[in-house]
Specification:
This protein is mainly beta. It has one domain: Jelly Rolls. Helix content is about 5%, strand content about 50%. Strands 1, 2, 14, 15, 16, 17, 19, 22 and 24 form a 9-stranded antiparallel β-sheet that branches. Strand 8 and strand 9 form a beta hairpin. The longest helix has 12 residues. Bound molecules: manganese (II) ion. Manganese (II) ion binds next to strand 6.
Length: about 325
């Protein structure tokens, strides 16, 4: 997925203090015909570990609609992490990859120096679409790596009492995802099919984390969460308590704080306005290559106001 905003807008609300926990509320955004809950970046927090973008969309009935339709667009400096709770989405990119994704599977695209991709509902989509689109910022040493695409249909379960836990990025409770990562990271979905409560979700104290609900609701360390609310857990924690009624599911994302200021504009994660300017010019000149098999026009880059990018962000 892509942001179609001229800028990667930040989520809307100031944090609501809940027992000294920071809970922020998503901003609504549109990506094509899909309404998304945008939870990251935040005004006060551009990234959590290396995670720098969180969209949660659906569940949405896409029967008889175009569903997801994101034309070819470019990325640099990040990985896109696509995770579905329901439905199916077809990915195509400028490396020639073509991959349908379904719930419980991971599509991981490393943009690195640059890649273009398109994502769309297939011609005969599953009737309900529900998922998350996440970006991982690449650290300085790796942000210009060669672009790559991975699909992982088999991902490990982690032992978290009561929850069926799938680790799609990094490591949790001794279970390691096979997906390529460039900095210390965790990404997992925890599903409480029959209702669950545990006080021992293991966290790494050198990581910061966020937790959000994708289905149902949950109580995490005393914060009651519904979809669209993002709980931030700072470094220094050894574990979290989680309880959730039957049928609920949560996402846990975290990692070592990146410690690098990010400059995000449109679909680019960079450090300087010059890099953004160069990537935008390259996209307009066809420098990212063609997304084969996609019928229709690529996404035009929005107008770039370099002076605005140069202003320090508060
Ligand atoms: Mn994208």
């Amino acid at each position: 997925m892509s942001t179609v905003d001229a800028d990667v807008e930040i989520a809307g609300d100031d944090p609501v203090p809940v027992l000294d926990l920071e809970v922020t509320v998503a901003r609504q955004a549109r990506v094509g015909d899909i309404t998304v809950r945008r939870m990251l970046p935040l005004r006060q927090r551009r990234s959590v570990g290396p995670w720098c973008f969180i969209d949660h969309y659906g569940p949405q009935d896409v029967d008889g609609t175009t569903g997801m339709l994101v034309p070819p667009h470019p990325h640099i400096g990040l990985q896109t992490v696509t995770w579905l709770v329901a439905g199916n989405v077809l990915h195509r990119d400028s490396l020639g990859s073509e991959q349908m994704i379904r719930p419980g599977q991971l599509n991981l695209m490393t943009a690195g120096a640059g890649i273009a991709h398109a994502e769309e509902s297939p011609e005969q989509p599953d009737p309900v679409l529900h998922g998350v689109q996440l970006w991982v910022a690449l650290p300085e040493a790796s942000r210009r790596v060669a672009p790559a695409f991975e699909h992982h249909a088999e991902l490990p379960d982690a032992a978290v009492p009561g929850f069926q836990t799938t680790v799609f990025m990094g490591e949790l409770a001794g279970s390691q995802s096979p997906a390529t990562a460039f900095s210390p990271i965790v990404g997992a979905e925890l599903s409480a099919a029959g209702g669950a409560a545990t006080s021992s979700v293991p966290l790494r104290p050198d990581y910061e984390h966020v937790v959000f609900v994708v289905t149902g609701r949950a109580d995490v360390d005393g914060a009651v969460l519904a979809p669209g609310q993002l709980l931030y857990l700072p470094t220094g924690r050894q574990r979290a308590s989680m309880s959730a009624p039957a049928g609920s599911s949560l996402m846990l994302l975290g990692g070592e704080p990146l410690g690098e200021p990010l400059l995000m504009w449109w679909n680019f994660v960079a450090r300087t306005p010059e890099e953004i300017e160069a990537a935008t010019a390259s996209w307009r000149e066809g420098g990212f290559g063609e997304v084969g098999g996609y019928e229709g026009e690529p996404m035009p880059a929005p107008d770039l106001d370099v002076a605005r990018l140069r202003r320090p962000r508060s």
